[in-house]
Design brief:
Blueprint lengths: L2 H15 L12 H10 L5 H14 L3 H4 L4 H8 L5 H18 L8 H5 L6 H12 L8 H9 L8 H11 L5 H14 L14 H4 L1
Protein name: Endonuclease III
Keywords: 4Fe-4S, DNA damage, DNA repair, DNA-binding, Endonuclease, Glycosidase, Hydrolase, Iron, Iron-sulfur, Lyase, Metal-binding, Nuclease
Catalytic activity: 2'-deoxyribonucleotide-(2'-deoxyribose 5'-phosphate)-2'-deoxyribonucleotide-DNA = a 3'-end 2'-deoxyribonucleotide-(2,3-dehydro-2,3-deoxyribose 5'-phosphate)-DNA + a 5'-end 5'-phospho-2'-deoxyribonucleoside-DNA + H(+)
Length: about 200
Amino acid sequence: MRKSERAAFIMAKLDELYPEVPIPLDHRDSYTLLIAVLLSAQCTDKRVNQVTPALFDLAADPQTMIRQTPEAIREIIRPCGLSERKAQNIYDLSHILLAEHGGEVPASFEALEALPGVGHKTASVVMAQAFGVPAFPVDTHIQRLANRWKLTKSKSVGKTEKDLKKAFPEKHWNKLHLQIIFFGREYCPARGHDPALCPICSVVG
């Protein structure tokens, strides 16, 4: 099976299994989405969703967030791990949004990636899910599945992102990113995976 055939089958199967995909991180707007994605680094979406209600009740916009202390933020987000650094980043980026962007989350990869704690993957999620800009965020789960499905040979998320963008039509990138995440959780886990029972690996593996 050629890569183009694998990609077409994968896209059809994902559309069959996940015709609609919700954004897995609970949020209210682009700012709270940015904060939730930042917190999700080395942390599960489930844990982030358990933590953010209390954080957003405390502060759900940069104007309110800068009136908190990093220590107060850290106390709430502690279960997400790396809490000291994440709390400082949330505090600092909120100041920058107010000082440089009128308190709004910028709809620009360059501006987002210039914010503390915001790398390319986080920026890609925000651009895709908050602003509808075509992007293909690659995390460890998507990296794993892209290798399993022979859509890339790379272990680099940057190269994998490029390979996935070549494999799939641009208009489907934002939805596919989420579909692959949901599929990986349900059918294609990192451990205890039986390719013969997987709806995709059993065909393209």
